């Protein structure tokens, strides 16, 4: 089992972690004694995403090559995970955001629990949903992917199950039992691993306030062509129906970087017609533009503000 072990940083991924994961997974893929691979995070998070503190310091010092290495290393691992010849189980035991989703969702099985919190909050920090997000978000039901990409809204474990981001759900208390059972398995057969996970799975439904129950409104608004049309449509819906969800969604959109909203919408729409590797290549180029500050300094400025105010 691979354990992401930076609990004080919610297991945020840096270049060294990405390099170690690449090395381990390549070795495990070629090891006939290993049938499958599992991954979890230490502490209260699976993984909070990429380490934007270290990325900010690279940008601040003008170290563009280090920025390139950061993204190249992590995206290479995400591609390796998504094409790995052996089954993969991610135990999403807490915060699973941004790059944390990137190092779990491309794998075979994703086990959510009552403590799982998923989000792609990049537009709120002047960036774009990356680490493969334009691929997996664009393949969610309807236009849920656009909603998640633009708003950075959070999903819980039940919602992840409902939309397909998670393959299994277990109450948090059962996770040690799952880990113990997986540790005893000697197999490379996905159906055997799935049977093990099913043994500890629980039936769960999103609550009445969930976005899952508002897919009609999501499709009506987030299926439109432009960010401006999406916002206008939500404002129109808010005036017609008494649903606090419309207001909270509008607030999230208005808190985001305007440029990031436009870039992210385009990214999801392109991802719908691209392969996994094509999405990663495009996201890599987009990410380098984001840290270069040639087009916009939003990511650098928001990162600077959050670090100074200790929000990350």
Automatic annotation (TrEMBL):
Pathway: Amino-acid degradation; L-valine degradation. Its EC number is 3.1.2.4. PANTHER family: 3-HYDROXYISOBUTYRYL-COA HYDROLASE-LIKE PROTEIN 1, MITOCHONDRIAL, 3-HYDROXYISOBUTYRYL-COA HYDROLASE-RELATED. This is 3-hydroxyisobutyryl-CoA hydrolase. Pfam families: ECH_2 (PF16113). One of its GO terms (molecular function) is 3-hydroxyisobutyryl-CoA hydrolase activity. It catalyses: 3-hydroxy-2-methylpropanoyl-CoA + H2O = 3-hydroxy-2-methylpropanoate + CoA + H(+). Belongs to the enoyl-CoA hydratase/isomerase family. One of its GO terms (biological process) is L-valine catabolic process. Residues 2-310 form the Enoyl-CoA hydratase/isomerase domain. Coiled coil: none annotated. Keywords: Hydrolase. Hydrolyzes 3-hydroxyisobutyryl-CoA (HIBYL-CoA), a saline catabolite. Has high activity toward isobutyryl-CoA. Could be an isobutyryl-CoA dehydrogenase that functions in valine catabolism. InterPro entries: ClpP/crotonase-like_dom_sf, ECH_dom, HIBYL-CoA-H.
